[in-house]
Amino acid sequence: MNQTPPRRPISDLPVMASLLDSMLHDDEGQYRTLCECRPKPYVLDDHTVARVIQVFTQQKADLPLYQQQLSHWLEGDLTASQTREVERLQGCITKLQEVAESILSLAEELQQGTIESVLRKSDLELGLEFLQGKRKR
């Protein structure tokens, strides 16, 4: 059963703006942090990567709800500044979608090299990966 959340009044626009701006800032920081782990994914554990995947999969699924609210506001009688802000936030949602997809893609990649995935391999497997250039010191 897919329920539509209640519509918020336009007076909630500053709250929505603060929420989406903060979310984008935090997500971009999370992406940078994960990028730093790319050359050494073994610094991450399975639980951490699984949690990142869970959180950003849910966030990606929630973004259409924000988009619906913004579209609803655009259908109303807005001032010019409210219209500009709603349109800016629609762009923010597009960026959030892109960042979430980048994070999920990177997390899937990192999942292959977590400390647990390394520990599950035999010395022979690790040695072969090193010799083939798939693994660095």
Describe this structure in words.
There is one protein chain. The chain is mainly alpha-helical. The protein has one domain (13-131). 74% of the residues lie in helices and 0% in strands. The mean pLDDT is 90.
- Shape annotation: elongated
Q: What would you call the structural class?
A: mainly alpha
Number of domains: 1
How many beta-strand elements? 0
The total of helices stands at 5
- Low-pLDDT residue spans: none
Helix and strand pattern? HHHHH
The portion of residues assigned to helices is over 70%
Residue share in β-strands: under 5%
First-last Cα distance: 51 Å
Largest sheet descriptor = none
Radius of gyration: 20 Å
Give the mean pLDDT.
90
Quick overview:
With about 140 residues, the chain is mostly helical. It contains five helices and no strands. About 15% of the residues are buried.
Name some characteristics of this structure.
single chain; mainly alpha; 74% helix
SSE arrangement:
Layout: H1 13-37, H2 46-75, H3 80-111, H4 115-119, H5 123-131
Helix pairs in contact: 1-3, 2-3
